[in-house]
Amino acid sequence: MKVKRALVSVSDKTGLIPFVRGLVELGVEVISTGGTANHLREAGLPVTSVSEVTGFPEIMDGRVKTLHPAIHGGILADRERPSHMEAIAQLGIKPIDLVVVNLYPFEATVARRGVTEAEAIENIDIGGPSMVRSAAKNFAGVGIVTDPADYDVVLAELREHEGELTRETRRRLAAKAFQHTAHYDAAIARWFGEQESDFPEHLMIELAKVKELRYGENPHQRASWYREITFGGPQLGQLEQLHGAQMSFNNLLDLDSARRVLDEFELPACVIIKHNNPCGVAVAETAASAYEKAFSCDPVSAFGGVIAVNRPVDEELAQLLSANFIEVLWAPGYAEKALEILTQKKDIRILTGQHNRDVCGSFDMKRIVGGMLVQDWDCEV
């Protein structure tokens, strides 16, 4: 599939100029809309406006620009079907081989404090998702690029293969494009749903991969770590690891349990978790005293446990902690001397980050076989 014509219409213009310049150098005709076309022309790049292709002006403040047979016919025509190619030829429609589109910033808009309903509505993209889906459906003959991070890879492949994209690349980009539009529609559906007080009929939960894990709860299980995109408060995925090996599946489970227990206390507190069960919990006047009390609950089970404290670790606490084998330690901060003491033990995983008390704007979900139980977080305690 040799790329001869590209349609470019983006909201996020990151990296766009060098990418389009590369396309032009390869002899690609670039078609573009409104603000994107102006952006490219200002950089001295030749652009054909969508209005020239459709013979129809942009109308209703840009709400209707690309929703036209001259655009979608050029994208959707199956290159392997003579009837399709004859149809567009008879109508004077030229094929579009590459579509470069990202969508209006709906999520960023509704995340702003004080955003109005009218502002949110105007940032619901219609033409963009239509072009993305058309190109992704017809990936056998069309490339679709929705992520600026793919510009360099796509351009490099076009240069390497004399202006062609491999089927493997087109299929990968199509999968990414459908994920892009699904995420976009889910964000819009969530926003409309949030305007209602009841639980929605269909609850959409979006997760983004943080990283792959070495294995799951047991060595024979594969595992990955995902974060909930719409979760309102701090997440484990936002924690900063200061020392030690990568967190394992079981480390993450235990740390999550430790921090949930820690949420119950305002006083200096320490929680020790082993195999996802508390084996020591205590409060005291200082974090060091709280640790001593928590450790004394069950010193045997505390060996190799996961520990969380809700106060910064000072030198006194670090000395106490260093006397025992600890898998994971989380605290909101560490004194410089405390870190010097703790990092002498190479096996301990040391983490820090914001405490996760602010969860009341989201749902508490419990997995059961074949479904989920969903409730409000218990923020009355």
Overall SS class: alpha/beta
Report the CATH superfamily of the largest domain.
Answer: Methylglyoxal synthase-like domain
CATH architecture descriptor name of the largest domain: 3-Layer(aba) Sandwich
Coarse morphology: elongated
Mean pLDDT reading = 88
The percent range for helix content is 25-40%
Q: What is the CATH top level name of the largest domain?
A: Alpha Beta
**With helices defined by DSSP (H or I, 4 residues minimum), what is the helix count?**
15
Instruction: Let me know the number of strands.
Output: 15
Give the strand line-up of the largest sheet.
8-13-12-11-9-10
- Rounded to an integer in angstroms, the radius of gyration calculated over CA atoms is 27 Å
H and E order: EHEHEHHHEHHHEHHEEEHEEHHEHEHEEE
Biggest sheet details: 6 strands, mixed
Outline the low-pLDDT stretches: none
Number of domains: 2
Amount of beta strand: 15-25%
Q: Please report the distance between the alpha carbons of the first and last residues.
A: 62 Å
What name is given to the CATH topology of the largest domain?
A: Rossmann fold
